[in-house]
Design a protein that fits this description.
- With 182 residues, the chain is an alpha+beta fold.
- Helix content is 26%, strand content 29%.
- It has helices at residues 13-27, 85-89, 92-99, 104-122, and strands spanning 2-7, 36-37, 43-44, 52-58, 61-67, 71-77, 143-145, 148-155, 158-164, 173-175.
- Strands 4-5-1-10 form a 4-stranded mixed β-sheet, with helices on one face.
- The chain starts with a strand and ends in a 7-residue tail after the last strand.
């Protein structure tokens, strides 16, 4: 599994440019193959179904994961959410954990990203209440739960997570996208 991140995006189309860059560097796929969507909405490369990827963007950030097994990623700009949102989307143990965190919105954003990554790994879409999506509490190292690996990262103003079948890397490849807006 490899993870790529880019910042400074000015258009949504640049997130796909990160996927193209990652696929070329890691798999030697250039140009980027056609992308189709499975029934639950998960993207894939027809003709290269052994190559799994996932892509996320938020604000000026993009995150991309490549692997040989299903994978899901999510990146979120850290912001102050609606005060009632944590109680609506977090389980009781998650709420208890949040109460002890020094940075509420960063911690909540990490939980949100973990839940999104797990849903995206499955490819089934959101089929149950968000509160019921089982994820580990954010940790400073990869964690296994239900046979899946989870990893989290944070930076200035962003939080990200991955969910997959292999242990996530410690480092993310940081890329600059000097790509014109399409």
């Amino acid at each position: 599994m490899v993870i790529y991140r880019a910042k400074g995006l000015t258009a949504r189309s640049q997130a796909r440019a990160l996927l193209a860059l990652a696929a070329a560097e890691h798999w030697g796929l250039s140009p980027l193959p056609q992308i189709a969507r499975r029934e639950g909405g998960k993207p894939y490369f027809p003709g290269h179904e052994e190559l799994h990827f996932n892509l996320s963007h938020s604000g000026d950030q993009a995150l991309c994961a490549l692997d040989g097994a299903p994978v899901g990623v999510d990146i979120q700009v850290v912001k102050q959410w609606r005060p009632a949102l944590p109680a609506r989307v977090c389980s009781r143990p998650e709420l208890d954990w949040l109460e002890g965190q020094p940075e509420l919105w960063l911690s909540f954003t990490l939980l949100w990203a973990l839940k999104e990554a797990r849903v995206k790994e499955s490819g089934r879409g959101l089929t149950s209440p968000i509160r019921d999506i089982r994820v580990p509490l954010p940790a400073d190292r990869p964690v296994q739960l239900d046979g899946l690996w989870f990893g989290t990262w944070t930076g200035q103003g962003w939080a990200a997570a991955v969910c997959g079948h292999r242990e996530p890397p410690e480092k993310i490849f940081e890329k600059s996208l000097d790509i014109p807006i399409v």
